[in-house]
TrEMBL record:
<keyword id="KW-0808">Transferase</keyword>
<dbReference type="InterPro" id="IPR029063">
    <property type="entry name" value="SAM-dependent_MTases_sf"/>
</dbReference>
<protein>
    <submittedName>
        <fullName>SAM-dependent methyltransferase</fullName>
    </submittedName>
</protein>
<keyword id="KW-0489">Methyltransferase</keyword>
<dbReference type="InterPro" id="IPR006764">
    <property type="entry name" value="SAM_dep_MeTrfase_SAV2177_type"/>
</dbReference>
<dbReference type="GO" id="GO:0008168">
    <property type="term" value="F:methyltransferase activity"/>
</dbReference>
<dbReference type="GO" id="GO:0032259">
    <property type="term" value="P:methylation"/>
</dbReference>
<dbReference type="Pfam" id="PF04672">
    <property type="entry name" value="Methyltransf_19"/>
</dbReference>
Length: 268
């Protein structure tokens, strides 16, 4: 076992402040996945969102399936380190599990600005002994903090798979964040994005969430999302509905027209 992994695995899990009086993004998403790391206020928010936009009943499952396919693709393409920004609460087929199934030496850093997420992640997500899994409490918009913290585990002079799945929708200046991360990445790195599209099926749910909850949700057009990928080499089939990006036999069943856009692109 590596000394790094042993040190990480032995770190004490500290208590984090939990507010059970208001919905929390990570816990609502966990509720949509049928998880148990949530409160009634989160389950109620999930039910309200799905009642308003029934298509959201499939969103979390489709998102996790896309992450699995995207990480597997990059690992098979030779990527051995991943930066997963906007981790969310632990669930099956986490990034390090998928990557290390291809190569046990893969290194993964999870980034989230919710300390509760990272407490759960550190307690429950263990790396393969040959690899390394790190956890970073940082906001995605603080690029120096993200890169500086990630550099403690990853070699950013080498290609890295940057994952931003359903996190950019909560960032007002998402274009600047993506541009900053891509600019700092080595040639041969990959950017993976998934983002809810401007779609009439989602607009009422967006207003419901933004009325009562932070952070605010931003829906964006295919053109806006595509502009983040300018100068990168899109992996086929390009920017498409999430369940149309290289579907796999183990994917959950979901509608063909989910209003979630997804892409994987390589930095030349």
């Amino acid at each position: 076992m590596s000394e790094e992994w042993l040190a990480e695995a032995s770190r004490p899990v500290r208590a984090a402040k939990v507010d059970s009086s208001a919905p929390n993004v990570a816990r609502v998403w966990n509720a949509m996945l049928g998880g148990r790391d949530n409160f009634e206020v989160d389950r109620r928010a999930a039910r309200q969102l799905i009642a308003t936009a029934p298509v959201l009943a499939h969103a979390a499952y489709a998102s996790r399936a896309f992450l699995r396919r995207a990480v597997r693709y990059q690992a098979e393409a030779g990527i051995r380190q991943f930066l997963d920004i906007g981790t969310g609460l632990p669930t099956k087929d986490a990034t390090h599990e998928v990557a290390q199934a291809t190569d046990p030496s893969c290194r993964v850093v999870y980034v989230d600005n919710d300390p509760v997420v990272l407490v759960h992640a550190r307690a429950r997500m263990r790396s393969d002994a040959e690899g390394t899994t790190g956890y970073l409490n940082a906001d995605a918009t603080d690029i120096p903090a993200v890169l500086g913290g990630a550099a403690q585990t990853l070699d950013l002079a080498q290609p890295v798979g940057i994952l931003m799945i359903d996190v950019l929708t909560f960032i007002a200046d998402a274009a600047d964040v993506v541009a900053g991360l891509v600019a700092a990445a080595a040639a041969g790195s990959y950017l993976t994005v998934m983002h809810p599209a401007e779609d009439q099926r989602l607009t009422v749910a967006q207003r419901l969430w933004n009325r009562d909850t932070e952070p605010q949700v931003h829906l964006r057009s295919r053109c806006q999302i595509g502009s983040w990928l300018d100068g990168l080499e899109l992996v086929d089939p390009g920017l498409v509905e999430v369940n149309q990006w290289r579907p796999a036999p183990d994917d959950p069943e979901c509608p063909d027209d989910l209003p979630l856009l997804a892409a994987v692109a390589k930095k030349p």
